[in-house]
Amino acid sequence: MLSMASTQGFKLPPQSNAPLSASHAASPAQRAPQQLRTPSNRKTIYDRNLNRTRTAELSRASFAYLFSEMVSYAQKRVTGIQDLERRLNEQGYPLGLRLLPLLLYREPARTSVRPNRILPLLQFIHGPLWRHLFGRTADAIEHSSSANNEYMVSDNEPLVNQYISVPKEMNQLNCAAYVAGIIEGVCDGCGLMAGVSAHNGGSEMWPGKTVFLIRFEEGVVEREGLLEGKR
């Protein structure tokens, strides 16, 4: 610690009016935030017509890369196959919620009605939703014979499974759980609450077949029965 005597000869350096050098400039945190850059035509993605990309297709190579990265991300810190499928389902769920109003907007005016019954909803999933995602309709729709609230949508060759190599110790894994999440989001967006899961249903003819089990809540089935009774 300096004594008073030792500090008597201490003088401050003379002040200078010269501008600060780059080393004395304000830190990035102290600078004013820069505004977002916009295109020269002043238009953003929000100004784009929703029908502009109606017939656009994504290359399979790009899709395969993006989806494999999604699976790798979901695989981190999981406890098992069911946990991994649950995370894939959660990734697809928000997409289903957002696809519903977009697809209804693109439908003709006479058919652009949000499905509020089970059968029209299943037809919407089988047709417009599947064509938008995979360029074709689903292969089959079935009603479970053992449970009144269960329906099945089948895809003989799911695109999401064609570029995924599943190890033998995880042969029960079905990455189409991501598509199951999309279906669940569409169902919930229509107010017909349901849980959707993907199951391996391979056969000799279709070894990669996947069955999407749609299990509606009991309240939805009861409401459906009341509406049927009023007809």
Tell me briefly what this model is.
The protein is α+β, with helices and mostly antiparallel strands. It has helices spanning 60-75, 81-106, 118-134, 177-189, 218-230; strands spanning 140-143, 150-155, 194-200, 210-216.
Describe this structure in words.
With 231 residues, the chain is of the alpha+beta class. Helix content is 37%, strand content 10%. The chain has helices spanning 60-75, 81-106, 118-134, 177-189, 218-230, and strands at residues 140-143, 150-155, 194-200, 210-216. Strands 1-2-4-3 form a four-stranded antiparallel sheet. The longest helix is centred in the middle third of the chain and has 26 residues, at 81-106. It is globular, with a radius of gyration of 29 Å. Residues 1-13 and 18-25 have low confidence and may be disordered.
Notable traits:
about 10% strand, about 230 residues, alpha+beta, 5 helices
List the helices and strands and how they pair.
Layout lengths: L59 H16 L5 H26 L11 H17 L5 E4 L6 E6 L21 H13 L4 E7 L9 E7 L1 H13 L1
Antiparallel strand pairs: 1-2, 2-4, 3-4
Mean pLDDT level: 81
> Into which percentage range does the β-strand content fall?
5-15%
Please give the share of residues in helix: 25-40%
How many β-strands, per DSSP?
Answer: 4
For the biggest sheet, the summary is: 4 strands, antiparallel
Oligomer: single chain
Measure the end-to-end span: 96 Å
Q: Measured on Cα atoms, how large is the radius of gyration? A: 29 Å
Q: Helix and strand string, N-terminal first? A: HHHEEHEEH
Q: What shape does the CA trace take? A: globular
Low-confidence stretches: 1-13, 18-25
In which order are the strands of the major sheet placed? 1-2-4-3
Helix/strand/pairing category: alpha+beta
Total of DSSP H or I helical runs spanning 4+ residues? 5
